[in-house]
Structure formats: C-alpha cells, structure tokens
Amino acid sequence: MITLSELCLLVGGLYIALHLPLVAGPSLSRRLLAAFPRNSIAGAILAAVALAWSAWNVNDMPLGLIDNFKAWLWVLAPVMYGLVLVFMNELLAIRALGGILMLAACPVLEIQRLNESCWTWVLASLAYLWVVAGMVLILSPYRFRHAMERYCSTDRSCRLMGAGGIMMGVFLIGLGLKVF
Fold it and tell me: C-alpha distances in angstroms, 83 versus 60, 76, 77, 87, 91?
C-alpha cells in the first residue's frame, strides 16, 4: 500500500504537471480547455478509465446476496462502456473527468485516515473538494465551460490559475517530504 508521503508526492506532481501548461502556454491551454468538453477521443479514454476503475471497486466490495453475480461484472463493464459511448457522448469528457475525480477521492481518504498527523486534513479537504467538483461536472458539465470562461478568459488569468495549481503542488510535495 502506498504511504501518505508517497501519495502527497504523487498528487503534488500531478498538480504541477496539469497546471504547468497554463503558465507556459496560456493561449494554447485556453484553446485546448475550450475544446476539451466535446473531445470524443478524450471522452472515450476517460470513460474507459472511469468504468474500469468503477468495475474494479465494485469487484472488491462485499455485496452480500449478489456476490455470486460479480463474475458478470467483467462482461457487463465493456457493454456499459459501449452504451455510454453511443448514448452519452454529449460532453462525455467532462462527465468522465467528474467520475474520475470522485473515484480518486476514495484511496486518498483511505490512506489519509490511517495517519495520525494533524496535517491530514489537507488531503481530506482536497479529496472532498474533488468529490464536490466531480458531482458538479457529472450533473452539469456546462459549468466547466463557465468556470474556464471566468478563470481562464485572458492569458494573465490563465497564468494565475496555473500558478495557483503549481503552488498547491509544491505545497503537497513539501508535505510529503517534510511532514509525512
């Protein structure tokens, strides 16, 4: 199992990697962010990740009386993936991203609760923010576009948004190296 220190380093590195393009190339990043919600390739990839991760989680859960049907999960998951691509292709990239955000919170909270440091609230708060953001993205994916129009409308605001994400990543890496 991954340690809390390794988790902080991983999440901090992801924050830096995802926010660095906003600082380095804000105009290109703004165009990519504007095109992302309707990108069918990104939607298909993210939906596959979200559905595979969900199937993995359901397979590990104790389901009581329906445990006998878990063998069908690996048949149903690809069928569901095909149905999602056919019937839910509208703004699929954003919805799948929301699902991944909600799924990512679970391992973070599991690892965080086993540690007794007073700094674990940082990761718990971050995980709960991911859950809320994931729910918003799934239920109303158009809010992604509204947020990007508000927070990344100019190159300067895009750079500020990226710098904030990079600072959060550096903070998490510092927590991983010094605290945990």
Answer: 24, 10, 10, 6, 15
Alpha carbon separation from 93 to 110, 152, 166 (Å, rounded): 27, 19, 23
* Residue 145: exposure state from Cβ atoms within 10 A (0-12, 13-18, ≥19): middle
Q: pLDDT by residue (tens digit) across 73-91?
A: 889 999 999 999 999 888 9
Token pair, residue 84, equals: 């999602």
pTM confidence score: 0.89
Beta strands in the chain (DSSP E): none
The rounded distance, in Å, linking the Cα atoms of 45 and 159 is 27
Task: Report d(CA 131, CA 147) in Å as an integer.
Answer: 17
**Domain locations in the chain?**
4-179
